[in-house]
Amino acid sequence: MVIGAGPVGENAAERARAAGLTVAVVESELVGGECSYWACIPSKALLRPVAALADARRVAGSRQAVTGRLDAAAALTRRDDFTSHWNDDGQVDWLKAIGADLVRGHGRLSGPRRVAVDTADNGRLDLSARHAVVISTGSRAVVPDLPGIAEARPWTSREATASPTVPGRLAVVGGGVVGAEMATAWQALGASVTLLVRGSGLLPRMEPFAGELVMQGLVEAGVEVRTGVSVTELRRPGGSGPVTLVLAGSGGSGGGGSGSGSGEEELEADEVLFATGRAPRTDDLGLETVGLAPGSWLDVDDSCLVRDVDGDWLYAVGDVNHRALLTHQGKYQARIAGAAIGARAAGRPVETGPWGAHAATADAVAVPQVIFTDPEAAAVGLSAAEAERAGRRVRVVDYDLGQVAGASLYADGFRGRARMVVDEARGVLLGVTFVGAGVGELLHSATVAVAGEVPVERLWHAVPSFPTISEVWLRLLEAYRG
Protein backbone atom coordinates (compact mmCIF):
# COMPACT_ATOMS: atom_id res chain seq x y z
CA MET A 1 0.00 0.00 0.00
CA VAL A 2 1.34 3.43 -1.00
CA ILE A 3 0.20 6.65 0.68
CA GLY A 4 0.84 9.50 -1.77
CA ALA A 5 0.58 9.32 -5.56
CA GLY A 6 3.20 11.79 -6.65
CA PRO A 7 5.99 10.65 -9.00
CA VAL A 8 7.74 9.00 -6.05
CA GLY A 9 4.70 7.03 -4.97
CA GLU A 10 3.98 6.10 -8.57
CA ASN A 11 7.50 4.68 -8.92
CA ALA A 12 7.16 2.69 -5.69
CA ALA A 13 3.86 1.27 -6.92
CA GLU A 14 5.28 0.38 -10.33
CA ARG A 15 8.32 -1.40 -8.87
CA ALA A 16 6.18 -3.35 -6.38
CA ARG A 17 3.87 -4.39 -9.20
CA ALA A 18 6.89 -5.44 -11.27
CA ALA A 19 7.89 -7.65 -8.34
CA GLY A 20 4.53 -9.41 -8.58
CA LEU A 21 2.72 -7.75 -5.66
CA THR A 22 -0.76 -6.27 -5.64
CA VAL A 23 -0.73 -2.53 -4.91
CA ALA A 24 -3.20 0.06 -3.69
CA VAL A 25 -2.33 3.78 -3.90
CA VAL A 26 -4.03 6.36 -1.68
CA GLU A 27 -4.11 10.02 -2.77
CA SER A 28 -5.97 13.00 -1.33
CA GLU A 29 -5.20 15.48 -4.12
CA LEU A 30 -4.11 15.03 -7.74
CA VAL A 31 -2.40 11.86 -8.93
CA GLY A 32 1.00 13.09 -10.07
CA GLY A 33 1.61 15.14 -6.96
CA GLU A 34 3.51 18.34 -6.26
CA CYS A 35 6.07 17.85 -9.03
CA SER A 36 3.53 17.51 -11.81
CA TYR A 37 1.26 20.41 -10.90
CA TRP A 38 3.01 22.89 -8.57
CA ALA A 39 6.77 22.35 -8.75
CA CYS A 40 9.15 20.77 -11.29
CA ILE A 41 6.95 20.67 -14.38
CA PRO A 42 5.19 24.06 -14.23
CA SER A 43 8.28 25.91 -13.00
CA LYS A 44 10.45 24.52 -15.79
CA ALA A 45 7.69 25.22 -18.31
CA LEU A 46 7.82 28.86 -17.20
CA LEU A 47 11.62 28.98 -17.26
CA ARG A 48 12.22 27.34 -20.63
CA PRO A 49 11.01 30.35 -22.71
CA VAL A 50 13.28 32.56 -20.62
CA ALA A 51 16.33 30.44 -21.49
CA ALA A 52 15.36 30.11 -25.15
CA LEU A 53 15.02 33.86 -25.59
CA ALA A 54 18.21 34.55 -23.66
CA ASP A 55 20.11 32.07 -25.85
CA ALA A 56 18.82 33.77 -29.01
CA ARG A 57 19.96 37.15 -27.72
CA ARG A 58 23.46 35.83 -27.00
CA VAL A 59 24.28 34.97 -30.63
CA ALA A 60 24.92 37.52 -33.38
CA GLY A 61 22.44 36.91 -36.18
CA SER A 62 19.66 35.50 -34.04
CA ARG A 63 20.01 38.50 -31.69
CA GLN A 64 18.88 40.83 -34.45
CA ALA A 65 15.73 38.76 -34.99
CA VAL A 66 14.55 39.30 -31.40
CA THR A 67 12.19 42.25 -31.51
CA GLY A 68 10.22 42.10 -28.28
CA ARG A 69 9.65 40.60 -24.84
CA LEU A 70 8.35 37.19 -23.96
CA ASP A 71 4.67 36.67 -24.68
CA ALA A 72 3.50 36.09 -21.11
CA ALA A 73 0.05 34.84 -22.10
CA ALA A 74 1.54 32.23 -24.44
CA ALA A 75 4.07 31.15 -21.81
CA LEU A 76 1.34 30.73 -19.19
CA THR A 77 -0.81 28.76 -21.63
CA ARG A 78 2.14 26.46 -22.35
CA ARG A 79 2.61 26.00 -18.60
CA ASP A 80 -1.05 25.07 -18.26
CA ASP A 81 -0.72 22.52 -21.05
CA PHE A 82 2.21 20.85 -19.28
CA THR A 83 0.18 20.56 -16.07
CA SER A 84 -2.74 19.08 -18.07
CA HIS A 85 -4.71 22.07 -16.76
CA TRP A 86 -4.49 20.50 -13.28
CA ASN A 87 -6.41 17.45 -14.43
CA ASP A 88 -4.96 14.06 -13.46
CA ASP A 89 -6.92 11.77 -15.80
CA GLY A 90 -3.78 10.78 -17.70
CA GLN A 91 -1.89 9.86 -14.55
CA VAL A 92 -4.88 7.91 -13.22
CA ASP A 93 -4.94 5.96 -16.49
CA TRP A 94 -1.22 5.18 -16.03
CA LEU A 95 -1.85 3.77 -12.55
CA LYS A 96 -4.62 1.61 -13.93
CA ALA A 97 -2.36 0.45 -16.77
CA ILE A 98 0.24 -0.95 -14.35
CA GLY A 99 -2.51 -2.73 -12.41
CA ALA A 100 -2.55 -0.57 -9.27
CA ASP A 101 -5.77 0.30 -7.45
CA LEU A 102 -6.37 3.98 -6.71
CA VAL A 103 -8.17 5.02 -3.53
CA ARG A 104 -9.17 8.70 -3.42
CA GLY A 105 -9.04 10.19 0.06
CA HIS A 106 -6.84 11.05 3.01
CA GLY A 107 -4.92 8.03 4.26
CA ARG A 108 -3.28 7.65 7.64
CA LEU A 109 -1.72 4.76 9.52
CA SER A 110 -4.01 3.06 12.01
CA GLY A 111 -1.56 0.47 13.32
CA PRO A 112 1.01 -1.98 11.94
CA ARG A 113 0.37 -2.60 8.22
CA ARG A 114 -2.98 -0.84 8.50
CA VAL A 115 -4.24 2.30 6.74
CA ALA A 116 -7.53 4.13 7.36
CA VAL A 117 -8.79 6.28 4.49
CA ASP A 118 -11.28 9.12 4.77
CA THR A 119 -12.64 8.81 1.25
CA ALA A 120 -13.61 11.61 -1.09
CA ASP A 121 -17.31 10.76 -0.64
CA ASN A 122 -17.06 11.21 3.17
CA GLY A 123 -16.84 7.48 3.78
CA ARG A 124 -14.11 5.47 5.50
CA LEU A 125 -12.10 2.49 4.38
CA ASP A 126 -9.95 0.36 6.65
CA LEU A 127 -7.24 -1.35 4.64
CA SER A 128 -4.45 -3.73 5.53
CA ALA A 129 -1.23 -4.56 3.70
CA ARG A 130 0.16 -8.08 3.60
CA HIS A 131 3.76 -6.96 3.08
CA ALA A 132 4.42 -3.22 3.31
CA VAL A 133 3.16 0.34 3.54
CA VAL A 134 5.09 3.06 1.72
CA ILE A 135 4.77 6.69 2.83
CA SER A 136 5.42 9.11 -0.01
CA THR A 137 3.47 12.17 1.10
CA GLY A 138 6.22 14.65 0.30
CA SER A 139 6.74 18.06 1.85
CA ARG A 140 5.00 21.43 2.00
CA ALA A 141 6.23 25.00 1.88
CA VAL A 142 6.94 26.65 5.24
CA VAL A 143 5.69 30.20 5.77
CA PRO A 144 7.23 32.03 8.74
CA ASP A 145 5.07 33.10 11.66
CA LEU A 146 5.22 36.86 11.16
CA PRO A 147 2.83 39.63 12.22
CA GLY A 148 0.24 40.07 9.48
CA ILE A 149 1.18 36.93 7.58
CA ALA A 150 -2.33 35.45 7.49
CA GLU A 151 -3.98 38.59 6.18
CA ALA A 152 -1.19 39.13 3.66
CA ARG A 153 -2.02 35.79 1.95
CA PRO A 154 1.54 35.27 0.64
CA TRP A 155 2.41 33.04 -2.26
CA THR A 156 4.22 29.80 -1.66
CA SER A 157 5.82 27.73 -4.40
CA ARG A 158 2.34 26.52 -5.36
CA GLU A 159 0.95 29.95 -6.17
CA ALA A 160 4.24 31.00 -7.77
CA THR A 161 4.09 28.18 -10.31
CA ALA A 162 0.32 28.25 -10.88
CA SER A 163 -0.61 31.96 -10.97
CA PRO A 164 -2.84 32.70 -13.98
CA THR A 165 -1.61 36.31 -14.21
CA VAL A 166 1.65 38.23 -13.96
CA PRO A 167 1.85 40.49 -10.91
CA GLY A 168 3.01 44.04 -11.49
CA ARG A 169 5.42 43.95 -8.54
CA LEU A 170 6.61 40.74 -6.91
CA ALA A 171 8.68 40.48 -3.75
CA VAL A 172 10.49 37.16 -3.40
CA VAL A 173 11.76 36.22 0.06
CA GLY A 174 14.52 33.61 0.08
CA GLY A 175 17.75 33.09 -1.83
CA GLY A 176 17.54 29.35 -2.41
CA VAL A 177 16.50 27.42 -5.51
CA VAL A 178 12.81 28.37 -5.54
CA GLY A 179 13.53 32.02 -4.88
CA ALA A 180 16.16 32.28 -7.60
CA GLU A 181 14.14 30.36 -10.20
CA MET A 182 10.88 32.22 -9.58
CA ALA A 183 12.63 35.59 -9.61
CA THR A 184 14.09 34.58 -13.00
CA ALA A 185 10.74 33.48 -14.43
CA TRP A 186 8.48 36.30 -13.28
CA GLN A 187 10.93 39.08 -14.13
CA ALA A 188 11.13 37.75 -17.68
CA LEU A 189 7.34 37.45 -17.85
CA GLY A 190 6.96 41.14 -17.06
CA ALA A 191 6.87 41.53 -13.28
CA SER A 192 9.11 43.97 -11.43
CA VAL A 193 10.88 41.63 -9.00
CA THR A 194 12.70 42.38 -5.77
CA LEU A 195 14.58 39.43 -4.29
CA LEU A 196 15.13 39.66 -0.53
CA VAL A 197 17.86 37.48 0.97
CA ARG A 198 18.69 37.18 4.66
CA GLY A 199 22.25 36.01 4.04
CA SER A 200 25.03 37.47 1.95
CA GLY A 201 24.34 35.57 -1.27
CA LEU A 202 22.26 33.08 -3.23
CA LEU A 203 22.26 29.28 -3.40
CA PRO A 204 24.14 28.76 -0.12
CA ARG A 205 24.35 24.98 -0.54
CA MET A 206 26.37 25.22 -3.73
CA GLU A 207 29.89 26.42 -4.45
CA PRO A 208 30.06 30.17 -3.68
CA PHE A 209 30.74 31.12 -7.31
CA ALA A 210 27.42 29.57 -8.35
CA GLY A 211 25.41 32.03 -6.27
CA GLU A 212 27.62 34.90 -7.39
CA LEU A 213 27.12 34.21 -11.10
CA VAL A 214 23.38 33.60 -10.71
CA MET A 215 23.02 36.86 -8.77
CA GLN A 216 24.88 38.68 -11.52
CA GLY A 217 22.51 37.22 -14.10
CA LEU A 218 19.44 38.24 -12.11
CA VAL A 219 20.68 41.79 -11.68
CA GLU A 220 21.43 42.12 -15.38
CA ALA A 221 17.92 40.88 -16.15
CA GLY A 222 16.47 43.68 -14.03
CA VAL A 223 15.84 41.97 -10.69
CA GLU A 224 16.67 44.05 -7.63
CA VAL A 225 18.60 41.71 -5.34
CA ARG A 226 18.96 42.84 -1.74
CA THR A 227 21.03 40.85 0.72
CA GLY A 228 21.27 41.00 4.49
CA VAL A 229 17.60 41.84 4.98
CA SER A 230 14.75 40.13 6.85
CA VAL A 231 11.00 40.60 6.71
CA THR A 232 9.65 41.45 10.17
CA GLU A 233 6.00 42.26 9.39
CA LEU A 234 3.47 42.31 6.56
CA ARG A 235 0.43 44.53 6.10
CA ARG A 236 -2.44 43.92 3.68
CA PRO A 237 -5.62 45.41 5.14
CA GLY A 238 -8.63 43.27 4.32
CA GLY A 239 -6.45 40.70 2.59
CA SER A 240 -6.55 42.47 -0.78
CA GLY A 241 -4.67 45.14 -2.66
CA PRO A 242 -0.94 45.75 -2.37
CA VAL A 243 1.04 44.16 0.44
CA THR A 244 3.56 46.14 2.50
CA LEU A 245 6.67 44.35 3.76
CA VAL A 246 8.52 45.79 6.74
CA LEU A 247 12.22 45.04 6.34
CA ALA A 248 15.08 45.04 8.82
CA GLY A 249 18.79 44.67 8.21
CA SER A 250 21.61 46.24 6.32
CA GLY A 251 19.66 46.26 3.07
CA GLY A 252 22.81 45.82 0.98
CA SER A 253 22.23 45.60 -2.75
CA GLY A 254 23.43 42.68 -4.84
CA GLY A 255 24.09 45.12 -7.63
CA GLY A 256 20.49 45.82 -8.60
CA GLY A 257 19.68 48.77 -6.38
CA SER A 258 21.00 51.43 -4.11
CA GLY A 259 20.55 49.65 -0.78
CA SER A 260 18.85 51.25 2.19
CA GLY A 261 21.35 51.50 5.00
CA SER A 262 20.57 50.10 8.44
CA GLY A 263 17.27 50.09 10.32
CA GLU A 264 13.71 49.41 9.17
CA GLU A 265 12.05 50.34 5.91
CA GLU A 266 8.97 49.40 3.92
CA LEU A 267 8.59 47.77 0.53
CA GLU A 268 5.30 47.62 -1.36
CA ALA A 269 4.44 44.80 -3.76
CA ASP A 270 1.38 43.35 -5.45
CA GLU A 271 2.32 39.82 -4.35
CA VAL A 272 4.93 38.36 -2.03
CA LEU A 273 6.42 34.88 -2.40
CA PHE A 274 7.98 33.16 0.60
CA ALA A 275 10.53 30.57 -0.51
CA THR A 276 11.94 29.87 2.92
CA GLY A 277 11.99 26.12 3.42
CA ARG A 278 9.98 22.90 3.50
CA ALA A 279 8.38 20.72 6.17
CA PRO A 280 7.26 17.07 5.95
CA ARG A 281 3.62 16.21 5.26
CA THR A 282 3.41 13.87 8.25
CA ASP A 283 1.39 15.85 10.78
CA ASP A 284 -1.89 13.99 10.11
CA LEU A 285 -0.55 10.61 9.07
CA GLY A 286 -1.25 8.44 12.13
CA LEU A 287 2.45 8.10 12.97
CA GLU A 288 1.60 7.95 16.66
CA THR A 289 -0.16 4.60 16.08
CA VAL A 290 3.20 3.00 15.30
CA GLY A 291 5.28 4.85 17.89
CA LEU A 292 6.53 7.76 15.78
CA ALA A 293 6.20 11.50 16.36
CA PRO A 294 3.57 13.28 14.21
CA GLY A 295 4.95 15.99 11.98
CA SER A 296 8.48 14.58 11.91
CA TRP A 297 10.81 13.70 9.09
CA LEU A 298 11.03 9.91 8.84
CA ASP A 299 14.43 8.37 9.50
CA VAL A 300 15.15 5.49 7.11
CA ASP A 301 17.95 3.07 6.31
CA ASP A 302 19.41 2.73 2.82
CA SER A 303 16.56 0.48 1.68
CA CYS A 304 14.20 3.29 2.81
CA LEU A 305 12.83 1.14 5.65
CA VAL A 306 11.71 3.38 8.53
CA ARG A 307 13.86 2.92 11.60
CA ASP A 308 12.31 2.48 15.07
CA VAL A 309 9.32 0.55 13.66
CA ASP A 310 9.39 -3.20 14.20
CA GLY A 311 8.56 -5.75 11.53
CA ASP A 312 10.29 -4.49 8.37
CA TRP A 313 7.04 -3.23 6.84
CA LEU A 314 7.04 0.60 6.89
CA TYR A 315 8.96 2.50 4.19
CA ALA A 316 9.33 6.23 3.50
CA VAL A 317 10.51 7.57 0.15
CA GLY A 318 11.01 11.03 -1.29
CA ASP A 319 10.98 14.35 0.53
CA VAL A 320 9.38 12.83 3.62
CA ASN A 321 12.63 11.09 4.65
CA HIS A 322 14.69 14.28 4.24
CA ARG A 323 17.59 12.53 2.50
CA ALA A 324 17.39 14.63 -0.68
CA LEU A 325 14.42 16.90 -1.43
CA LEU A 326 14.48 16.35 -5.19
CA THR A 327 11.95 14.50 -7.32
CA HIS A 328 14.52 12.49 -9.26
CA GLN A 329 16.22 11.38 -6.07
CA GLY A 330 12.88 10.40 -4.53
CA LYS A 331 12.04 8.33 -7.60
CA TYR A 332 15.41 6.61 -7.25
CA GLN A 333 14.59 5.82 -3.62
CA ALA A 334 11.20 4.50 -4.70
CA ARG A 335 12.78 2.13 -7.19
CA ILE A 336 15.14 0.90 -4.47
CA ALA A 337 12.32 0.50 -1.94
CA GLY A 338 10.00 -1.24 -4.41
CA ALA A 339 12.72 -3.77 -5.22
CA ALA A 340 13.47 -4.29 -1.51
CA ILE A 341 9.78 -4.87 -0.74
CA GLY A 342 9.62 -7.44 -3.53
CA ALA A 343 12.74 -9.21 -2.28
CA ARG A 344 11.54 -9.35 1.32
CA ALA A 345 8.10 -10.54 0.23
CA ALA A 346 9.69 -13.38 -1.76
CA GLY A 347 12.10 -14.29 1.02
CA ARG A 348 15.13 -13.36 -1.07
CA PRO A 349 18.24 -11.70 0.38
CA VAL A 350 18.14 -7.91 0.57
CA GLU A 351 21.34 -6.35 -0.75
CA THR A 352 21.82 -3.26 1.44
CA GLY A 353 25.59 -2.89 1.20
CA PRO A 354 27.00 0.17 -0.61
CA TRP A 355 25.75 0.28 -4.19
CA GLY A 356 23.66 -2.86 -3.61
CA ALA A 357 20.42 -3.47 -5.48
CA HIS A 358 18.42 -2.44 -2.40
CA ALA A 359 20.53 0.47 -1.13
CA ALA A 360 20.01 4.14 -2.01
CA THR A 361 23.74 4.79 -1.71
CA ALA A 362 23.69 7.72 -4.15
CA ASP A 363 21.72 9.80 -1.63
CA ALA A 364 24.92 10.36 0.31
CA VAL A 365 27.50 10.78 -2.43
CA ALA A 366 26.05 11.57 -5.87
CA VAL A 367 22.93 13.76 -5.72
CA PRO A 368 22.60 15.84 -8.91
CA GLN A 369 20.68 19.12 -9.09
CA VAL A 370 20.12 21.73 -11.78
CA ILE A 371 18.93 25.26 -10.98
CA PHE A 372 17.22 26.62 -14.11
CA THR A 373 18.20 30.25 -13.71
CA ASP A 374 20.08 32.29 -16.31
CA PRO A 375 22.87 31.23 -16.12
CA GLU A 376 22.04 27.68 -15.09
CA ALA A 377 23.82 26.16 -12.10
CA ALA A 378 24.36 22.40 -11.94
CA ALA A 379 26.14 20.32 -9.33
CA VAL A 380 26.58 16.75 -8.14
CA GLY A 381 28.32 15.31 -5.10
CA LEU A 382 30.23 17.33 -2.52
CA SER A 383 31.30 20.94 -2.70
CA ALA A 384 34.90 21.72 -1.80
CA ALA A 385 33.84 22.96 1.64
CA GLU A 386 31.72 19.86 2.30
CA ALA A 387 34.57 17.56 1.28
CA GLU A 388 37.01 19.35 3.56
CA ARG A 389 34.55 19.24 6.48
CA ALA A 390 34.28 15.49 5.89
CA GLY A 391 38.02 15.21 6.40
CA ARG A 392 38.89 14.41 2.78
CA ARG A 393 42.23 15.43 1.31
CA VAL A 394 41.09 17.19 -1.81
CA ARG A 395 42.34 19.18 -4.74
CA VAL A 396 40.05 21.74 -6.32
CA VAL A 397 40.35 22.41 -10.05
CA ASP A 398 38.55 25.39 -11.63
CA TYR A 399 38.19 26.38 -15.27
CA ASP A 400 36.66 29.36 -17.05
CA LEU A 401 33.94 27.95 -19.28
CA GLY A 402 34.23 30.99 -21.52
CA GLN A 403 37.63 29.67 -22.63
CA VAL A 404 36.13 26.45 -24.03
CA ALA A 405 35.71 26.59 -27.82
CA GLY A 406 32.30 24.95 -27.77
CA ALA A 407 31.03 27.44 -25.19
CA SER A 408 32.22 30.45 -27.17
CA LEU A 409 30.37 29.05 -30.20
CA TYR A 410 27.27 28.40 -28.10
CA ALA A 411 27.02 32.05 -27.04
CA ASP A 412 28.94 35.24 -27.75
CA GLY A 413 30.81 36.28 -24.63
CA PHE A 414 29.89 33.04 -22.84
CA ARG A 415 30.32 33.41 -19.08
CA GLY A 416 30.59 30.46 -16.75
CA ARG A 417 32.77 28.37 -14.56
CA ALA A 418 33.45 24.70 -13.87
CA ARG A 419 34.92 23.04 -10.81
CA MET A 420 35.84 19.49 -9.96
CA VAL A 421 36.73 18.34 -6.45
CA VAL A 422 39.21 15.45 -6.51
CA ASP A 423 39.78 12.99 -3.67
CA GLU A 424 43.57 12.90 -3.74
CA ALA A 425 43.75 9.72 -1.66
CA ARG A 426 41.66 7.67 -4.09
CA GLY A 427 42.06 9.57 -7.36
CA VAL A 428 38.31 9.94 -7.97
CA LEU A 429 35.88 12.84 -8.17
CA LEU A 430 33.88 13.80 -5.09
CA GLY A 431 31.93 16.62 -6.72
CA VAL A 432 31.50 18.68 -9.87
CA THR A 433 29.83 22.08 -10.40
CA PHE A 434 29.05 23.88 -13.64
CA VAL A 435 27.59 27.38 -14.06
CA GLY A 436 26.68 28.80 -17.45
CA ALA A 437 24.09 28.76 -20.21
CA GLY A 438 22.89 25.24 -21.00
CA VAL A 439 25.16 23.46 -18.51
CA GLY A 440 22.32 21.36 -17.08
CA GLU A 441 22.84 18.94 -19.95
CA LEU A 442 26.48 18.47 -18.88
CA LEU A 443 25.56 17.24 -15.44
CA HIS A 444 24.80 13.60 -16.10
CA SER A 445 28.35 12.98 -17.31
CA ALA A 446 29.55 14.32 -13.96
CA THR A 447 26.99 12.21 -12.10
CA VAL A 448 28.25 9.06 -13.83
CA ALA A 449 31.84 9.98 -12.94
CA VAL A 450 31.00 10.61 -9.26
CA ALA A 451 28.58 7.70 -8.74
CA GLY A 452 30.80 5.32 -10.70
CA GLU A 453 33.93 6.46 -8.86
CA VAL A 454 35.66 6.60 -12.22
CA PRO A 455 39.40 7.11 -11.67
CA VAL A 456 40.65 10.48 -12.88
CA GLU A 457 43.28 8.66 -14.93
CA ARG A 458 40.54 6.74 -16.73
CA LEU A 459 38.56 9.94 -17.36
CA TRP A 460 41.54 11.12 -19.39
CA HIS A 461 40.52 8.50 -21.96
CA ALA A 462 36.91 9.71 -22.18
CA VAL A 463 37.40 12.04 -25.14
CA PRO A 464 34.88 14.90 -25.43
CA SER A 465 33.53 15.79 -28.85
CA PHE A 466 34.81 18.99 -30.45
CA PRO A 467 33.52 21.68 -30.47
CA THR A 468 31.07 21.16 -27.60
CA ILE A 469 30.83 22.65 -24.12
CA SER A 470 31.69 19.15 -22.86
CA GLU A 471 35.28 19.88 -23.85
CA VAL A 472 35.51 21.51 -20.42
CA TRP A 473 36.19 17.99 -19.13
CA LEU A 474 39.45 17.89 -21.08
CA ARG A 475 40.40 21.36 -19.84
CA LEU A 476 39.72 20.42 -16.21
CA LEU A 477 41.81 17.25 -16.53
CA GLU A 478 44.63 19.14 -18.22
CA ALA A 479 44.61 21.66 -15.37
CA TYR A 480 44.64 18.81 -12.86
CA ARG A 481 47.64 17.14 -14.53
CA GLY A 482 49.47 20.47 -14.69
From TrEMBL:
Keywords: FAD, Flavoprotein, NAD, Nucleotide-binding. InterPro entries: Class-I_Pyr_Nuc-Dis_Oxidored (IPR050151), FAD/NAD-bd_sf (IPR036188), FAD/NAD-binding_dom (IPR023753), FAD/NAD-linked_Rdtase_dimer_sf (IPR016156), Pyr_nuc-diS_OxRdtase (IPR001100), Pyr_nucl-diS_OxRdtase_dimer (IPR004099). Residues 247-266 are annotated as: Disordered. Residues 1-328 form the FAD/NAD(P)-binding domain. Residues 249-262 have a biased composition (Gly residues). Binds 1 FAD per subunit. Residues 367-473 form the Pyridine nucleotide-disulphide oxidoreductase dimerisation domain. NAD(+) binds at residues 174-181, 277. GO terms for biological process: 2-oxoglutarate metabolic process. One of its GO terms (molecular function) is dihydrolipoyl dehydrogenase (NADH) activity. The keyword Cell division does not apply. Disulfide bonds join 35-40. Its cofactor is FAD. Pfam families: Pyr_redox_2, Pyr_redox_dim. FAD binds at residues 44, 107, 137-139, 319. SUPFAM superfamilies: FAD/NAD(P)-binding domain (SSF51905), FAD/NAD-linked reductases, dimerisation (C-terminal) domain (SSF55424). It comes from the Bacteria. This is NAD(P)/FAD-dependent oxidoreductase. The lineage of its organism: Bacteria, Bacillati, Actinomycetota, Actinomycetes, Kitasatosporales.
